[in-house]
Structures are given as structure tokens and as C-alpha cells.
UniProtKB/TrEMBL annotation, chain B:
Lineage, uppermost ranks: Eukaryota, Metazoa, Ecdysozoa, Nematoda, Chromadorea
Gene Ontology terms: biological process: negative regulation of transcription elongation by RNA polymerase II
Gene Ontology molecular functions: RNA binding
Localization, UniProt: Nucleus
Domain of life of the organism encoding this protein: Eukaryota
Keyword tags: Nucleus, Repressor, Transcription, Transcription regulation
Protein name: Negative elongation factor C/D
GO CC annotations on file: NELF complex
Family assignment from sequence similarity: Belongs to the NELF-D family.
Length: 206, 426
């Protein structure tokens, strides 16, 4: 990567707006992380508020994509940057700053700075209410994708339900053709296994 | 946009970019999208209306990195704070969202681990574990050194939260390593670690009592043994080989398929096997044994239905698109797929299957006789009471004059009974 000029104040703002301002670059934390240097983060202390809001967001989302050794070494300027974000006039910048507040220190998302009147808290209440409404109207029976490979007892330990209840759309008059196929295959299997030359089972199953 | 939003018409705001600019409006649009998925959950994953609602949620929440982070933070926190069905539903939304953005090439492992850490006790997630996971998931490739780090931490008395390795994307990679036919073999020194981690992710129940995380490892060894046996069996039976041996070992395979992780692994092996270009040339029999195994997986594991269904519909579409087979042979093969779909319908996946058949009829993707075959096979096995959702999607097929002529009543008592039931209920 070409060495970055030592940019100050307005020049840095201009440079970052150019680099990270593209409207269609919506997932650019990783790209932004590649641009960051200690020099830039430190300089932002004085000119962060001059960036456009979406460029501020991209700078903040660069933090989790930094290598651990940069996070450790640049802790102070990163924390300063996050403090500025947490006081920003833009709700988005403020909320992302709140959530990333402890990232450099602990690698964690933090909910500690979210206050009850925030959009985050209000949405939390709203979503909880929605889930309860749906649970009351019809039985909520969504299990996560990971449950598809997990045993019943693990699902039960997590969610207090053993298995996804299958909604009945009809009764079965009789079983489909697949049932005959299954029986045929098992009987063929028994025939094959009973032939003396086949008696030695596969090593993997022994 | 703010005025439309204030008036309560969130669903009218179709431009996410505009909505995403203001947190307040975005939050309302997000709530509306979540509400949409929860409203459609009754019909279930893989139905048209559910998939549409989920796609909308992905469009809204996955719009950009900060909207994604905000949405996932909410969903994770709710999954953690809520209990039972609500917790399961939020976990479902959060994971589905993660899988969807991964399909678009975005890796969000750092965020999942940061959120897991936020909800776990202090010190539960050690930096080496986080680094091992992030490094593998970022490249979407496993390596023995990072797997060894995970293995060491998960064999300790105080292991990290099981959710770390219960990540569906990670498990997919481990399954691929253990079940892909003709895959690169894992070195014998490392294979036990892969097996252990997969067995741990799928069988160790974790509960929190008085703030203490506890693990129950009762099923760990039996799960690991079953995975070990079936992984060996699968990796040694690649492509067209070994149908005879599979048949011989069928009772043991059926037994092992009761383990969800084994079923998911074998499903991966079946997918790799049957989608090989020459598979059906090598298996001219009317029902190749791999397809028969799909029935068993569907019977035992409702949660694997979407994956089995996806494979079958892909095979069906591929054959229709002209994959060498012609005329009668093609029809016979498609009937075999339809038999598998009817089996899925019989074990609880009725709506997606019927919607699929209605769609290929509507789009003229299949010979009418195949649609008639599906409807006949279905009528033969179902009887009242019928759900309204099922009637809504199946009745138009039975009533359609192109599929059944007007004398269907006399020819088929089951059709008569179905139509009578529908008209008396109306």
C-alpha cells in the first residue's frame, strides 16, 4: 500500500470523504480499516465532527476490522474517537458509538451506554411486544437454523421445547409409496446381508 | 419520509436507503419487517409468503453494515433476554439474517462473537477462541491449527459458550470436511478434533443456573461415535460407487440417521453425490439409494426439511432444464423426485411442496401429466380434516380442467371426497 501523506484537519476530512464517501459502498468497514493509521485516528480527534455522517459511520465500523495488535496499540485514540461519536448530533453515529464503546478494550458490543429513551431501547420494547402478540395469537414455533443439527435435549435446554411442532394440514389415509420403498429396501438389505460372502460387515461399522 | 413514517405507513416506505438515513424511521421500518416474518411464521420456512417476508427483513436489516449491526444487536439481546418460543424466534431471525448476508459475501463473525461476549459472563470467551473463529470464518476455510485451539478450549472444564461453535456456517465447514465424498482427507491426528467439535456443537446441552453455565455431555460420546462411523462410510463411498454396500448396511445407517448431526452430514454427502454430472447415468435404477435416504432424513428431522426440499427442487429444475435425459426416462426420473416430494408432504412439509408444484404448473415448467401424478398421489393419501392453508394451495390444482378432466369425480373417489369436503367447508 502506498504511504499515506500526513494529512491534517480539513485535508484529512476531504481525503476521507473522497475515500469513503461513495454512496453505494454500504459495507465498507473492512476497506476503511485498511486506510486507518495511528496518525489518522489521532488527527481525527480534532476534526471528526467535520466528516459527513455516513463517513463517520464507516470510520467507526472500521474499528472491529482492525487487527488485534492495532486495537491494543491504538486504544487511547480509538477510545477518544468513540467518545466523540457518542456525543454526535446524528442518532446513528451516536448509537454505533455506544455499541462499540468497549470494543477496543474487550472485543465486546456494549449495551451499557444505551439509555432508555433511545431509539434502540424503544425498538427493543417494540420488538418484544410484537413477539408476545404473535405468541398469543398463534403458537410461535420458529426454531433457529442451528437447531437442525442439534439434538432434542440441547434444544430443550435452550428453549424449553423438544422439537419443532409440525402443523397438521390433513390426516393421513395411508402412507405414501415411500413407505413401500423403505420396506423393500430393508428386506433387500437383509437378503444381501444373509448371503455368506457378504457377512463381513464394513470395517467402519464393525 | 418522516411524515409517512409518523402516519404509521412503514410498509409504504420502499426505499431502504432513504429510510436508513434516520435511525428513528429505520427502527420503525425494521419493526415492521420483523412483524412481517413473525406474521408469516405459521406457514413456515420455504413457503412463498414466509420467504417474501424474510427477504424483506434481509433487505432492510442488511442494507448496510451499520443497519446490520444495529439490527443484530437488537435481535441478539432479545434472544438472550426472552425465553422459550420468543427467544427461539429471535435466534431464528438473527441466524437467518447472518446466513443471508453471508450469501452476499459479507462476513459478520466478529459481530456475532462480540454480541455473544456481551451476553455471556466475564471471561467466558477468550481472545484465542475469538481469533481462531474469526480467522477461519473470514476465509471460510478450516485449518488444523485453529481447530486445535478450539478443541483445547472446548475440552476444558470451563469451556466457552457452546454457541461459539454452534454457528451454522462453522458447522457447515466441519461437515464438509467430514462428509464430502472425494474430499481432502483430514490428517488422522486432527480428525478426532473435528469430530469432537461437531459432536460437541450438536449434542452438548448448556444451561445457566444461578449465573453459572453448566454443560451436559451425556450424548457427546455416542454422537461422536455415530459421526465417526458415518463420516468414514460416506468418504469411502464416493460418486456412483458402493450402492451395494450402502444397501447392506442400511439398518445401521437408518439407526445413525436418528442423530440430527449425522443426518445433516449425510444430507451434505448426498447433495455432493447426486449433483455430480454423471450420477444418474451411473444409477439407472428407478429409485437410487441416495434418494431413498432423503426420505428417512425427512421422516426423522422436520428441521432439515428446508434443506432436503431445496435439493429435490434443484434436481427437479435441473432435469427439466435438459440434463441429457429425454422422453420417458426424464418423466420416470421426475416421478421419482415427485415421490420424494409427496413423502415430504406426508411428513409435514405440505405447503412448500404443494406451492412448488403449483408454481411449476403455472410456469409451464413440467408436463401436465406430472402435475396430475402429484395431485393423484396426494389425494390418495390425504383425508380430512384439511387446513385452510392447504386447501388454498391444493384445491386450484384439483379443480383445474387442464390437470383433471370433468369426470374426475367418477374416476377417483379420493378427488370426489376432497372436493366435497372443500365445498361443504366453504
Amino acid at each position: 500500500m502506498a504511504e499515506r501523506p500526513s494529512l491534517r484537519d480539513r485535508d484529512l476530512v476531504q481525503w476521507l470523504d473522497n475515500k469513503l464517501g461513495a454512496a453505494d459502498e454500504l459495507w465498507s468497514g473492512r476497506t476503511a480499516a485498511g486506510l486507518l493509521t495511528l496518525d489518522i485516528i489521532s488527527e481525527l480527534d480534532s476534526c471528526f465532527q467535520d466528516l459527513q455522517s455516513h463517513v463517520k459511520l464507516r470510520m467507526l465500523l472500521a474499528i472491529p476490522h482492525l487487527p488485534q495488535k492495532s486495537l491494543d496499540a491504538w486504544r487511547e485514540p480509538i477510545d477518544n474517537l468513540l467518545s466523540l461519536a457518542m456525543q454526535d448530533a446524528d442518532d446513528w453515529v451516536q448509537t454505533v458509538g455506544d455499541l462499540l464503546k468497549e470494543y477496543a478494550q474487550d472485543g465486546t458490543v456494549s449495551f451499557a451506554s444505551i439509555d432508555d429513551a433511545s431509539h434502540f431501547s424503544r425498538t427493543l420494547v417494540e420488538l418484544r411486544k410484537l413477539a408476545r402478540q404473535h405468541a398469543n395469537q398463534t403458537e410461535l414455533r420458529l426454531l433457529p437454523p442451528d437447531a437442525s443439527f442439534c439434538s432434542k435435549s440441547t434444544i430443550n435446554a435452550r428453549f424449553g421445547v423438544g422439537q419443532q411442532t409440525v402443523q397438521k394440514h390433513f390426516a393421513l389415509r395411508r402412507r405414501p409409496k415411500s413407505a413401500t420403498l423403505r420396506a423393500d429396501l430393508l428386506s433387500k438389505s437383509a437378503d444381501v446381508a444373509s448371503q455368506p460372502k457378504n457377512r463381513v460387515p464394513h470395517a467402519a461399522l464393525a | 419520509v418522516k411524515l409517512i413514517s409518523d402516519a404509521g405507513f412503514q410498509h409504504e416506505i420502499s426505499n431502504v436507503t432513504t429510510a436508513a438515513q434516520q435511525l428513528e424511521i429505520f427502527s420503525r421500518v425494521l419493526s415492521t419487517a420483523v412483524d412481517g416474518v413473525l406474521a408469516q411464521h405459521r406457514k413456515g420456512p420455504a413457503t412463498d409468503s414466509y420467504d417474501r417476508a424474510l427477504t424483506e427483513l434481509v433487505r432492510v436489516a442488511g442494507h448496510s453494515e451499520h443497519t446490520y449491526m444495529y439490527s443484530q444487536a437488537l435481535l441478539h439481546l432479545l434472544a438472550h433476554q426472552e425465553q422459550h418460543e420468543s427467544s427461539a424466534a429471535f435466534t431464528h431471525l438473527s441466524q437467518s439474517l447472518r446466513l443471508a448476508v453471508r450469501d452476499k459475501g459479507q462476513d459478520s463473525t466478529w459481530l456475532d462473537l462480540a454480541l455473544l461476549r456481551a451476553c455471556a459472563e466475564d471471561g467466558a470467551l477468550k481472545p484465542p477462541v475469538v481469533q481462531a473463529m474469526c480467522s477461519m470464518m473470514n476465509k471460510m476455510s478450516l485449518n488444523p491449527a485453529d481447530m486445535t485451539v478450539l478443541y483445547q478450549h472446548f475440552t476444558q472444564n470451563k469451556p466457552p459458550p457452546v454457541a461459539v461453535i454452534r454457528d451454522p456456517l462453522f458447522v457447515e465447514l466441519v461437515m464438509d470436511a467430514l462428509f464430502r465424498p472425494k474430499g481432502v482427507k483430514i490428517h488422522a491426528d486432527h480428525r478426532p478434533k473435528y469430530l469432537y467439535l461437531l459432536a460437541y456443537a450438536s449434542s452438548v446441552a448448556e444451561t445457566v443456573r444461578n449465573g453459572q453455565r453448566m454443560q451436559s455431555r451425556e450424548e457427546l460420546d455416542t454422537t461422536k461415535d455415530a459421526l465417526d462411523r458415518m463420516s468414514q462410510l460416506c468418504q469411502e463411498r464416493s460418486g456412483g460407487e458402493g450402492s451395494h454396500e450402502i444397501l447392506m448396511e442400511l439398518p445401521q445407517i437408518f439407526h445413525a440417521l436418528k442423530f440430527p448431526s449425522v443426518a445433516a452430514g449425510m444430507l451434505h454427502w448426498i447433495r455432493c453425490t447426486v449433483t455430480e454430472a454423471d450420477y444418474f447415468k451411473l444409477h439407472p435404477e428407478s429409485v437410487p439409494i441416495h434418494l431413498a435416504l432423503l426420505d428417512e432424513i425427512a421422516t426423522n428431522h422436520p428441521l432439515l426439511h428446508p434443506k432436503v426440499f431445496k435439493l429435490l427442487t434443484e434436481l427437479f429444475d435441473r432435469e427439466t432444464a435438459g440434463d441429457g435425459a429425454v422422453g420417458e426416462l426424464l418423466m420416470e426420473r421426475q416421478k421419482t423426485f415427485i415421490d420424494r416430494l409427496v413423502h415430504m408432504l406426508s411428513v409435514g412439509f405440505a405447503l412448500p411442496v404443494t406451492e412448488f408444484m403449483a408454481r411449476i404448473f403455472r410456469d409451464g415448467q413440467a408436463d401436465i401429466s406430472l402435475i396430475r401424478y402429484f395431485a393423484t398421489e396426494t389425494l390418495e393419501i390425504v383425508c380430512p380434516p384439511f387446513s385452510q392453508d392447504f386447501v388454498d394451495v391444493f384445491l386450484p390444482l384439483v379443480e383445474n380442467k387442464e390437470i383433471f378432466d370433468e369426470n374426475v369425480h367418477e374416476k377417483m373417489p379420493a378427488a370426489k371426497e376432497f372436493l366435497e369436503q372443500c365445498s361443504s367447508a366453504a
